[in-house]
Design brief:
Layout lengths: L1 H23 L2 E7 L6 H18 L12 E7 L4 H13 L4 E4 L3 H17 L6 E4 L16 E3 L4 H13 L6 E7 L2 H17 L4 E8 L8 H9 L4 E4 L3 H13 L6 E3 L7 H5 L7 E5 L9 H13 L9 H16 L5 H8 L3 E3 L5 E5 L4 E3 L2 E7 L13 E8 L16
Parallel strand pairs: 1-2, 1-3, 3-4, 4-5, 6-7, 6-8, 8-9, 9-10
Antiparallel strand pairs: 10-14, 11-12, 12-13, 14-15
Helix pairs in contact: 2-11, 3-4, 5-6, 7-8, 11-12
Pfam families: Peripla_BP_6
InterPro entries: BCAA_transport, Leu-bd, Leu_Ile_Val-bd, Peripla_BP_I
Keywords: Amino-acid transport, Signal, Transport
Amino acid sequence: MKNITKLGAVSALSLVLGASAAFAENIKVAFIDPLSGPFASTGTNGLHQFEFAADYMVNEKGGLLDGQMMEVIGFDNKISPKESLIQLQVAIDQGVRFIVQGNSSGVANALTEAVDKHNRRNPDSRVLFLNYAAVDPALTNDKCNFWHFRFDANADIKMDALTDVIAENDSINKVYIIGQDYSFGKSVSAAANKMLGEKRADIEIVGDELHPIGKVKDFTPYARKIVASGADAVITGNWGADMLGLGKSIIENGFTGPIYTYYAAGSGITAAFGESGKGIIRLVGEGQINPPASQEASDYYNAYKAKYPDGNIDQSRISNTIGMLAKAISEAGTADDVVAIANALEGMEYETMWGGKVFMRPQDHQAIQDMHINAHTNEGVTFTYDNSDYGVVTESTVVMASMDSPTTCEMKRP
């Protein structure tokens, strides 16, 4: 009798330990982006949005599969490709199977190559790279691979939408192009030159230059050249501190034309521009914030602000990334087999709370979605940024932008 009782106790203990171990098996997502240095505010804001999306969209609904929770872990890459590769290996060693990154296409290029190499050499610990903001077109063209998915529109898709708007504005005859000196900045310049030439051959490019990324303390010399050029409009792909520094300097030096941007909202940028940016700052992006596209989006935004009073939902693609990953895991029936999850992501159509749908194009893993041209303003703003009176309001929309755009990707599947 004693032996039976003892065996029963041991079995019960084993069940408890087994259940605890199973409960502890979170689905880990590594966020590899700058959490220190000049772009820390951009990275920290992105991390908070990923953490919130995982909790709100997955964990608070009971998790995935057999109740597995999604855990987002922040890794500071100091916006260095070399440091990013170190953090990638640390994450893989911790059992992470999903990598998210977005700030700097230079980092993304290093990561996608490293992930491809790791997965070929280590089939038992493969990972997926979910790119939420690095928009160098090469990543879904010549450098595409099966393990990389981009949830943001690439630089060419965004420029296509921007140049449609510019081409329709008869008051714009001279354009100045300026950006950060790395792959993304170069892509923005190339796309702007090509597309403006095709749509408005009469527009003169009066300036086209790159500056060191994250190192310019005073943009006055650049701003003075822009104003002296007689430009009617400016195009820039700058982001973070470089966006704010450049934009403020251009405006302070007397420029009053439109500044067309990719990343000129949130993370303190909106509040810093304030009244000075009204009627000047324009930005292209996915997701309609104002007016809200749905009640679901309004509820989501309000819940986020309740948790992060100083934060912003300025990257709606982050919730799309988490939502599509969760859907793929559920459809694949596994959180471990990343090949099955990747197959579920390919060709996925996802109804987003921010309006319209996201289609993950299978031939190059490029997300296709609506593109909005937004204006910095304090009028008609339901959801403001940076605890200011200002936000962005959608002025025009390109539905499923660049749906049929060509790609040079030659996808090799496992």
